[in-house]
Specification:
single chain, 661 residues, mainly alpha, two-stranded antiparallel ribbon, 2 strands, 65% helix, globular
Length: 661
């Protein structure tokens, strides 16, 4: 009797290189349990404890914290009891990959943004805003629950003794859940297609995986503790955010203990612009790992962008265009950034043209000269899966209310941003990213609201749940996961890793949906998180419905600024290719146009300055010796925030917000 297909991937097996396989039953089970835990715990921490955001950004702090406990505590205990009980490095890599993928789902990645946004149009409808007459007739019945009392109780809580009305949620949960799973599948397919080019041909450094990769490296035979945890420099770095953050945590309990301020700002250009200084220990740590030219470009172009905005303010040059709240505040800068993002994706595709040609030859012609056996998916599966997924998404968007000719434009904007931001994460190591212009504003600005029509505008409002706030998403997590699987010695068989990723998405989606609906009906959403259930739930329709009463034509100045941003990005790429001494990386210009740049720039500058001094006076040897200190900054920042969430859970403390970046 043959072994069932799925069991072939769950038995310990020696890889061709002699390393233990990561795809064991215990690794899958551990990863699945932690993925489900993340799906439940992250919304609970946001909505009940209301403490530090642990799953808000692509840095996935909750995964770092849980992995620290798993490797540094649980695995050590298992090794003390019996050596072969401890998870091996490839198994730990699998668990971590499942956790970072799961972390992208429950909060701003999808669920906590999605559920309030598809019910907000009904709950926040008033005679004054006239949403009932302007918008409600254009919402397809399968997209939202329709029971007015079920929606009211979702935001305000159920009367005592009443049960959660699960039945009214079945249809919208099915349709949105299916769409989201297909979206995640397409993102994983694209990550597979680009992986070899980015990770092997261009050798991007993937800073976000450096800490977990170092954590799982084993020491000499018989060693109970991995070398990472024996490094004194790491613990010194760990102690700094641990102490400062704990002081601020105690301040919530004891007002006599003064808080340590980590942020300030100062004005410039007659106070028309503000330059913030925000210290994030984890951001400093990640920035220390990136190349100097990228770091220099990020902080210098941010200051140049601020200079540009200040000059425009003084001269009275401004755009009156309305953009949604997730776009960069200045429409001029936002459009320039979108032009830069488009050029980055097109330029990356041009650099990867030979690789992409091989991928598509393998997919369509089965070219035997192209070896895809070490990839997560075969190139045939990745390419045809991507195409099929995009077709499904296109049909779904069309059925929801978007005109057929606008569907490819919208999807183009969506995936340009996903791919560009994934590139930023892989190369620049930014733990917090966001797009300068959202696909919704790009579409409205680019073609005008009359061309989109009432049904399309209303439907775009519902899609704010996944297509505007790109702070965490599966493609970046999948790209990091693929690189980690390469480096962790997981052997040649990566195909089961795809199922591990999709399982993590499903478990996180199910767990987060269940806990959010349960908490909302028990306590009332508006009593839990003011952003997600008040501002975030009402802002999409506050934005799109204005175009129903005040239509606007295509914004030609927006296209002009997009072209200017594209031209600047092209010029920077050209100069970098022709002048080897040129010290400013083009990514810096692109990142400087995003809203998050104001919180990132000072941390990047600080890390750049320290690294510059270290390399100049100590050389590569001192740099390598100093890296564990910055690993400690990252791990300490995330771990102490997680520890305080546990303390606050047991004490009942709320709003002890110690970390968001």
């Amino acid at each position: 009797m043959g072994i069932p297909v799925y069991e072939k991937y769950l038995v310990p097996e020696a890889s061709p290189e002699g390393s233990s396989s990561s795809f064991t039953a215990r690794a899958f089970i551990a990863g699945a349990v932690l993925a489900l835990f993340i799906g439940i715990a992250a919304p609970y921490a946001n909505m009940i404890i209301r403490g530090s955001y642990m799953a808000l950004n692509i840095s996935t702090p909750i995964a770092f914290f849980l992995f620290f406990l798993l490797v540094g505590v649980v695995n050590v205990a298992l090794r003390l009891m019996r050596a072969n009980w401890a998870l091996r490095p490839p198994e730990l890599a699998l668990v971590y990959i499942m956790m970072i993928v799961a972390s992208t789902v429950p909060t701003k990645g999808f669920t906590e943004a999605w559920l309030p946004k598809i019910t907000g149009p009904y709950y926040y409808a008033t005679p004054e805003n006239a949403w009932a007459t302007l918008a409600h007739p254009h919402i397809e019945s399968w997209l939202t629950p329709r029971d007015p009392m079920a929606i009211k109780y979702f935001f305000e809580g159920l009367p005592e003794g009443m049960e959660i009305p699960w039945s009214v949620w079945i249809e919208p949960l099915f349709h949105w859940g299916l769409f989201f799973l297909v979206l995640c599948f397409v993102m994983i397919c694209i990550a597979v297609i680009l992986h070899r080019q980015w990770a092997h041909n261009e050798r991007l450094i993937y800073p976000l995986i450096q800490v977990p990769l170092d954590m799982i490296k084993e020491g000499a035979a018989g060693s109970r503790l991995n070398p990472f945890f024996k490094n004194a420099a790491m613990w010194v770095g760990f102690a700094i955010p641990c102490f400062i953050t704990s002081v601020n945590g105690f301040n919530k309990y004891f007002n006599s203990i003064p808080a340590i301020e980590l942020a300030t700002r100062f004005g410039a250009f007659r106070e028309t612009v503000s330059i913030p200084i925000h210290l994030s220990f984890s951001m400093v740590g990640f920035s220390y790992l990136i190349n100097l030219d990228i770091a220099l470009g990020i902080w210098l172009f941010y200051l140049l962008g601020t200079l540009e905005q200040g000059i425009f303010n003084i001269l009275g040059i401004a755009s009156t265009e309305r953009l949604d709240i997730y776009a960069t505040a200045s429409p001029i800068i936002a459009h320039q950034g979108m032009g830069a993002f488009i050029v980055l994706v097109l330029a990356s595709a041009w650099v990867a043209r030979r690789h992409l040609r091989d991928v598509f030859k393998k997919a369509f012609k089965g070219n035997s000269a192209v070896d895809d056996s070490r990839e997560l998916l075969s190139y045939r599966t990745a390419v045809f899966g991507m195409i099929a997924g995009l077709i499904f998404m296109g049909i779904w968007l069309y059925k929801g209310g978007l005109q057929a000719w606008l569907v490819p434009v919208f999807l183009f904007a969506v995936f340009v941003l996903f791919i560009a931001l994934t590139r930023v994460v892989a190369e620049a190591g930014l733990a917090a990213v966001r797009a300068p212009l959202t696909p919704v504003s790009f579409l409205i600005s680019g073609v005008g609201s009359p061309a989109i029509g009432p049904a399309g505008l209303v439907f775009l409002g519902l899609n704010f749940s996944w297509a505007v706030n790109f702070r965490t998403f599966v493609m970046a997590a999948a790209a990091n996961g693929l690189k980690l699987s390469d480096e962790a010695g997981a052997g040649l068989r990566k195909r089961p890793l795809f199922w591990a990723m999709m399982l993590a998405v499903v478990l996180s989606l199910v767990g987060s949906t269940w806990i959010i609906l349960s908490m909302c009906y028990q306590h009332g959403g508006i009593n839990l998180d003011q952003w997600f259930f008040v501002g975030g739930a009402s802002s999409p329709f506050n934005f799109v419905v204005t175009y129903l009463t005040t239509p606007v034509e295509a914004n030609l100045s927006g296209w002009m600024w997009t072209g200017i941003g594209a031209a600047i990005m092209n010029l920077l790429i050209f100069i970098r290719q022709k002048l080897l001494w040129w010290p400013f990386h083009p990514l810096g210009f692109m990142i400087s146009t995003t809203w998050m740049a104001q919180f990132v720039w000072f941390n990047v500058f600080l890390a750049w300055l320290v690294k510059l001094v270290v390399l100049r006076y100590g050389g590569p040897r001192l740099y390598q010796a100093s890296r564990p200190f910055f690993y400690g900054l990252i791990l300490g920042h995330f771990s102490v925030a997680g520890m305080w969430l546990i303390v606050d859970y047991f004490t009942g403390m709320m709003d002890n917000h110690l970390m968001w970046l």
